[in-house]
Design brief:
Layout (H helix, E strand, L loop, with lengths): L1 H39 L6 H22 L8 H5 L2 H33 L12 H4 L1 H22 L7
Length: about 160
């Protein structure tokens, strides 16, 4: 089980680097767009569209990394009322429901790609399958990171106290 977690964590290192590159690229694109529009008076017609598509990937990839480290927003009322094994069981149930949702999201994302693959984006002329691919890619990464977090929860020896 720990080998699976190590494999997912290794993948997360690569994904984190990719996330940083996308975030840096998006930031540079937005700065270039502002400078070109207001200083040079020649707006870049494609930069806003590319930034928007990068943002979709950044959100899904960032959410998957946050899922791995239990940093997503959550309501902790019920887990705070429970202790020890009961809390672990609740977390495993929540991870299981999350994984089921991510599998459904993955399948629906693949279906969506097949519907939009012939459409082209207005400014870049890219197949709309490329931006919509962020949905199944993100769902897959979220599911994998949920599995790693669940394995950590199950194999953790420390007792969680109130």
């Amino acid at each position: 089980m720990q080998q699976v977690v190590k494999l997912i964590d290794g993948m997360n290192k690569v994904v984190g680097i990719l996330l940083a590159l996308m975030l840096g690229t998006m930031s540079l694109l937005i700065i270039a767009q502002v400078l070109c529009r207001f200083v040079i008076h020649y707006p870049l017609t494609w930069s806003e569209e590319l930034s928007r598509y990068l943002m979709a990937y950044i959100v899904f990839i960032g959410a998957s990394l946050a899922m791995r480290h239990n940093k997503l927003i959550s309501i902790e009322l019920l887990p705070e009322l429970l202790s020890g094994t009961k809390r672990k069981v609740l977390h495993v149930i929540v991870f299981t429901i999350s994984i089921i949702f991510f599998v459904i999201l993955f399948k629906q994302g693949i279906d969506m790609i097949s519907r939009v693959k012939m459409q082209l984006s207005p400014a870049l002329g890219l197949s709309m399958a490329i931006p919509y691919a962020s949905i199944p890619i993100g769902a897959l990464l979220l599911a994998l990171n949920s599995i790693a977090a669940m394995i950590d929860e199950v194999t953790s020896k420390k007792e969680v106290s109130n």
